[in-house]
Amino acid sequence: MKRIILAALVALSINSVNAQTKKPAAKTPAKAATTKPGVSPKIAYIFEDYIFENYKEVKKLDEDIKKKQEVYQESFNKMAIEYQTLYLDYQNSMKNLDSLTTEKLNEKLKKVQEVKSASENYQREAEKDLQQFTGDAVVLIKSNIKTAAQAVAKEKGLKYVFTRNKSDGPMTSNRVVLYAGDKGLGNISDAVLIKLGSPVVVKK
Fold this sequence. Notes:
The chain is mainly α. 61% of the residues lie in helices and 5% in strands. The protein has five helices and two strands. This is OmpH family outer membrane protein.
């Protein structure tokens, strides 16, 4: 996913303001935008990994996935045991060909193949269902985070809110944080978590 770069946004915002206010004949240098101490900047960010670590819906999703995995695994184990039992019976029958007709032997083999095919198909469908369930839930979670971030942005009068991770730096793949010297002033992660009903309790 493409990330909005803080430095680029700052430069874009300043250049836009300068272009609108600069007079053609004037050659005085544009003043750098400043933020008063204690006042939220017009550009803010959230730590996406921090939000995911503390958002209660993410924790609930983890629990739901584990429950689904347990149910699928239990059913698959039963099918695996049935297959092993039928296969062992077929193998034993092969050792006593005189006691069974070809028709009976083929019936046993067919049953073994059917159970094996059913178990393999069940495993594929279970994995597909789990992926779909997880994907849909993640989309909803990200939508909730976006909605909460938009609400916080409106309350604080922010123009831009972008995402980053706590460990992001100049060498982070697919992300570029050239500078982040706001001392956390632009971090609205906790405000977003409050909007999501998942306030973080600071341990003393």
